[in-house]
Task: structure prediction
Amino acid sequence: MDRMNGGASLREVLDILTRSIEAMAPECFCTVMLLDKEGKRLWEGSRGGLPEEYMRAINGLAIGPEVGACGSAAYRNETVVVEDISTDPRFAPVKDFVMSFGLMACWSVPIAGLNQQVLGTFALYHRRPAKPRERELKIVEAAAQLAANAIERLRATERQKENEERIALAEKAAFLGIWELDVSLGILTLSQELAAQAGLADAAHQISMSQLRSMIYADDWPAVVTAMRDASPESTRFHAEFRIVLFNGLIRWLRTQANVEFADKRAKRMIGVSVDITREKEMLEELHFLAAHDGLTGIWNRKAIFDLMHRELEMAARLGTTTGLMMLDLDHFKDVNDTYGHPAGDAVLRESARRLQQAVRSYDLVGRYGGEEFLVVLPHCDRGQVEECAERVRAAIAEEQWVAEGVPIRISASIGATVVDPSENAEHEGLVTADAALYDAKTRGRNCVVYRVPQHSRRESQRDLSQHLQ
Result:
């Protein structure tokens, strides 16, 4: 969205969006297709990582009720999930061509404007047959909504408002309001739509600067003041994003732009527009959450837990403290999947993450390391505390029978633990040591805790950590 403010084209903004989603799901490809003015054909908006040859072939695709995933989604104005391209009749005429690019599944969500008119589609292609989980669909739907915001906002800037009636309609459709500030008098005049957004009475279309300041969220006021000071006779643009607190206590986000008029090098008047971007902020926040959390268990994902571990070890180095690390592996987890099926396995992983979080301290960091392995970072921790916490986690997982998908299951965990002193040990040595301790726990019969002391110091040669980060 910042790129739009900087004048980026629609194609550039959509490319950023598809690349961002592909970074969150590296096994997938994203596309944005735009519906033409006649509402009959889809044209490339962004191809993400898909081959150019494939996009050339589908460019100008005629929409219809049974035309692949994107053509059907645009025609029906509803999400279309094709779990297996090889067997789905909507891909029957072209399945061999599509599969020749390694594409085996496609989920397509219509990009709808504020009036629910279809603007295009946002699609996620998979290299294998795949059925979406609810969280995965939310990512695609959120991306489609962000694409809709970008398309409508950038197209709106290309159209000039011809009369007051069209401006009023735009205000209501886009939650946009117009305002004028008399700087010398300190009086702000609001349009009816903006006054309604602010929760003011119909007649209260003028407010003082002191009233405005009381409405703006306290933490955001300094940024508004800075934006006002940045405006000058040479640069007459004002731009700010801030929250306002309504009289009913609700908080809304506004994006505001204005032209500033000067007289004798002093600001005299400001005329601008404000648009409610609360939903956009909420969806961006949700995307940020999804990017850092494991989709199945809800705990930190692999990249996020590594970033947090790095941060904690840097802080420990500054404070002169030590940090505990635990590597945990569910024993014989493959047998659960093979015997009871993957839904039961998923339920076991979710319950394991829940018990793990309950067993550690509130400020400890729990992440999914991969598969059935977990990594726990314990700030300000010595050996005794780490061993005590590890035993508490082992007991929480092993001592109580589980019921997954209606099936009673008993499972245990092997745990490797260590303590890292940043003044003596490099970050990767802590991980290698915890991993070696985990291996020892498995060789000793599983369902146990093994503690190891890092054997190497910073002054010794360091080994490559790439095997842990891949």
